[in-house]
Design goal:
The structure is a single chain. Helices cover 35% and strands 22% of the residues. It is globular. It binds N-succinyl methionine (SMG) and magnesium ion. Magnesium ion (MG) binds next to loops. Magnesium ion binds next to loops.
């Protein structure tokens, strides 16, 4: 399709409560939205890079600059989402920036074609079970209250953020209070090879998986850990592309993969990782980056692919936001409905978007 321009919009959305991980605490989300428009369509993309480069090397101000200065000048006159991989290839790295542009172009294309993200990606379900990510808390009682409330709401799986000093005790407390619920942990690379014996003490708790215990570039450390654990190792930050996924699985560094479009450069690469893992019997599930309803819509389409056999971090809008910029996604009977409208199937609510907007400008092409 022919694009006339791209709007870059920065919004700030408060979180319902602080979200603490091993790499820091977020109290609000500074989000970069990308809106592409042409004579016959528009499409929305959400950049998942946070304000600070703590989850990975990207950060929202940097992503915005990379999009302005290096990606938009490379947009071909006739643009397709499939063609962006080659167009953006000369730009090294910056997968979250690239993913945001691709997401917007794909949305515009699919709205024009009257096809949903779910249909395009190959979703096989119209509703998916939702897992929820629970941050590090100040006390065990506070954690148990939060987990109890999420289970009350119907979440199918609990994921606990852990770090050295907050791992065995919270897992034990949740197991003792709530029994054999689906339970997993995510360390966001907080441990080191010296901690392998300590991490093996998680085995008795029957966790679904332990997510990214070691640094993203330590595949051999994860392979050594995987050989010493009964708990499956899942990788997140390490899986930066389909090739990285193939290498991690071949090396035995993981037996489960967290799918995140922003981390791998877009939903097309995420689909390729899904297909590769499915072909080798490696379960995948859709991870999250505290997306607004725009990214949530695309993630639900991804979560509905056949290889996504574990509940994803695809929680309802109110897990993070009192007001989402789209109509809120709700959890019903423990399930999230996959949008079925053209493209993302959702769009920002204008007056809510205006209320959260800090600045916006259009880059004419
Ligand atoms: C700010 S933490 C974002 C990355 C984290 N994401 C989550 O824990 C799930 C977030 C969500 O529910 O969107 C992860 O490493 O998997
Ligand atoms: Mg993770």
């Amino acid at each position: 399709m022919k694009l006339a321009g791209v709007e870059l919009r920065r919004i700030r959305v408060p979180l319902v409560s602080p979200f603490r991980t091993s790499f820091g605490t977020e109290i609000d989300r500074e989000v970069l939205l990308v809106r592409v428009f042409g004579d016959d369509a528009e499409g929305w993309g959400e950049c998942v890079a946070a304000a600070d480069p703590l989850y990975s090397a990207e950060y929202v101000n940097g992503a915005e600059q990379v999009i302005r200065d290096f990606l938009l000048p490379r947009l071909p006159a006739e643009v397709t989402a499939r063609g962006l991989g080659a167009a953006f290839e000369p730009v090294r790295g910056h997968p979250m920036a690239k993913a945001a542009v691709e997401m917007a172009v794909l949305d515009a294309e699919l709205r024009l074609a009257g096809m949903s993200y779910a249909a395009y990606l190959g979703a096989t379900r119209t509703r998916v079970p939702a897992g929820v990510s629970v941050g590090i808390m100040d006390s065990i009682p506070e954690l148990l209250d939060a987990v109890g409330a999420y289970l009350e709401q119907g979440y199918a799986r609990i994921k606990l953020k852990i770090e050295p000093g907050w791992d065995l005790e919270p897992v034990r407390a949740v197991r003792e209070r709530f029994g054999d619920i689906l339970l997993q942990v995510d360390a966001n690379a907080a441990y080191r090879r010296a901690d392998l014996r300590h991490l093996a003490e998680l085995d008795p708790f029957g966790l679904l998986l332990i997510e990214q215990p070691l640094p993203e570039d330590d595949l051999l450390g994860h392979a050594r850990l995987a050989r010493s654990l009964t708990t499956p190792v899942c990788l997140d930050e390490s899986i930066t592309s389909a090739r990285a996924a193939a290498d991690a699985v071949t090396l035995g560094a993981c037996s489960i993969v967290n799918l995140k479009a922003g981390r791998v450069g877009g939903y097309l690469e995420a689909r390729r990782i899904h297909d590769l893992c499915a072909a080798h019997g490696v379960p995948v599930w859709c991870g999250g980056m505290l997306e607004t309803g725009l990214g949530r819509a695309a993630n639900l389409a991804l979560a509905a692919l056949p290889g996504c056999t574990l509940p994803g971090d695809v929680s309802a809008s109110d897990r993070y936001y009192t007001r989402d910029i789209t109509e809120p996604f709700r959890l019903e009977d423990g399930l999230m409905t996959v949008p079925s409208g053209p493209g993302l199937g959702v769009a920002p609510v204008p007056d809510v978007l205006r209320a959260f907007t800090e600045r916006a400008d259009v880059v004419r092409l």
